[in-house]
Amino acid sequence: MRLTPMISAILADGNGDGTPDRLGDTLAVSGRVTAAPAQLSHVRSNVATLQDDTDGIHARLPDGPLVSRGDSLIVRGRLLQERGLTAIDVTQYRIVPSPPRTPKPVPLTVATTVEDHYEGWLARTRGRVVDRRRTSKGRSLVLESPDGSSSARLSLFVADRHENRFRLDRFETGDVVEATGIVSQHGNRYLIEPRDDGDLVQSALAWEYLRIALIILGGLATGAVIWGVVLQGAVDRRTRQLKEAKRESERMRKLFESVFESAPVMIMLLDEDNRFERINKQFETVLGWTEEELLARDDAWTLLYPDDTDRRETLAFVDGAPTDRLESRPKTRDGHRLITEWWRTDLEEGRRLCLGVDITDRKRQERDLRRAKQHAETARREAEEASRLKSVFLANMSHEIRTPLTSIIGFAETIGDEAGDAAGENVVRFARLIKNSGHRLLNTLNAVLNLSKLETGEMDLSLEPVDLTQEARSSARQLLQKADERGIDLRVDTPDRPVFSQADGGAIQIILRNLISNAIKYSAKVSRVWVRAYEDDTGAAVLEVEDEGMGMDPSEVEDLFEAFRQASEGRDRTHEGTGIGLAVTKKAADAMEGTVTVETEQGVGSRFSVQLPRAEGVEPQRTTRP
């Protein structure tokens, strides 16, 4: 994976003014050395050339490790241009350990060499010597196309300080020379700079001898022309391929740069010595440190991890065998500590790419969740203990209160029956009051116990086909005396056919007794109460109790089924009771997958409807609401 810009990217001239857009910028670039310092036939002795798959460039190197042809080199410096030649004034460079490999020379013609596409490239061209020149800085051979197909001219230049290394005297005017070297520019002239004498090969005789040979070999002239055309076509084809490869490489570079900088995770690129080469914008955003700060300092890891233990663990992760992930706590530029999670992948030449995310908020949420779970577990245990104590209390209360209460009711009935007229009216009345009060207390106890069992799921319900018609009539008979005592006309409107529900008979009796008792309690004297059982339009079995009582405000219905709540409460309440009956009714219906609804109007009365599932496997008896 390549993480430095392509050479073509730093040489891009988007506005077409003849100079690179990034001229004057400090940047990093990498490539293979095509000409080492002091090898190039250049005026300066510290100039080397680099080339990648997209382009080539001259580089002025400072003092440092010896650089050889074929080395993989990463340089950092300022991009400049002098007398038309674009180069990097290098401030620091590094040789990447890898086997030496020199790119192959690009085959060019004289005409294509003098175009601006190949400056900095290692090229091979073939031209005829048309002039030999000497300047104050060196000697040059002026080359033209061997077949005269182009008027373009290319200078083969050798600086004075390299004159002993290159034997230019062996070439005469008219000779055809095959020159290999680095394409350069000086002012408005294009040059090719050889690296050693072996880069210059005399590929033909002098023009006079060539002319004689052409006359002698006239029969081959046509073939030579055809071969030239074929060769030119191959060169042009190769040139187009290189340009296409250059465009594709530039496209991929821009794509990578876009992904690298816009990635929502932190990215850091490290060299083989764990030094920072690049970081992305997300790294700077999260931790606050800039790329310049980390690249310029040898103690960059100390900035991020001041604690020795944290730093050793992080470097062990970066430098050791690959592991799944690392959780670390780097310090931000403003002094805060974050919790981060990192992954690592190894690249070529000992480099490493590390990806990280800030998990501080996630860790805080996990900690809060653990605390919440601990609190919930504590609350659950406390609730279970409270439920156990409540069950123990209710069991004791059922035994300790129900047993003497039953005796009291029995004795009151005996006193009332045996006293007769001889005991006087007060004795009989007192006995009846004791019996009624005992029944009321027993009913309250039963209601509390039923509510508790329904809430805890301890009430054993046996769901089976139950005839609601029979249950309605049975409950009405049990409460008929209570209705007569208040002058209430208790009516049962049921069909002649059974209305079966999948329910528990005991729970149905609880529901009916509560609803009918409430209807009698809250109805005015000399009024009516209806008890109904039928199947509605949906096929569900319905129990219904309607009264002509006091009714209530519809806004009070919402709280009506809460335990210990009544329409009238406190000192102002007008009727006896604990407010448990309707809560028991609702929970009993829920336990049988039924629903309870209320229709009420203050001063007119109320209608309570309990909708229950129809019994499966029993042929439905279609009835309608009476």
UniProtKB/TrEMBL annotation:
EC number: 2.7.13.3
Gene3D superfamilies: 1.10.287.130, Histidine kinase-like ATPase, C-terminal domain, PAS domain
Phylogenetic lineage: Bacteria, Pseudomonadati, Rhodothermota, Rhodothermia, Rhodothermales
InterPro entries tied to this protein: HATPase_C_sf, HATPase_dom, His_kinase_dom, HisK_dim/P_dom, HisK_dim/P_sf, PAS, PAS-like_dom_sf, Sensor_HK_Regulatory
Region spans: Disordered: 599-626
Coiled-coil segments on the chain, per record: 362-389
Transmembrane domains' residue ranges: 209-231
GO MF assignments: phosphorelay sensor kinase activity
Reaction(s) the record says it catalyses: ATP + protein L-histidine = ADP + protein N-phospho-L-histidine
Cited PANTHER family: HISTIDINE KINASE 1, TWO-COMPONENT HISTIDINE KINASE
Domain spans labelled PAS: 252-308
Species this protein is from: Salinibacter ruber
Protein's recorded name: histidine kinase
Pfam families: HATPase_c, HisKA, PAS_8
UniProt domain Histidine kinase: residue ranges: 396-616
NCBIfam families tied to this protein: sensory_box (TIGR00229)
Keywords: Coiled coil, Kinase, Membrane, Phosphoprotein, Transferase, Transmembrane, Transmembrane helix, Two-component regulatory system
Record bears the keyword Kinase: yes
Entry keyword NADP: no
Matching CDD domains: HisKA (cd00082), PAS (cd00130)
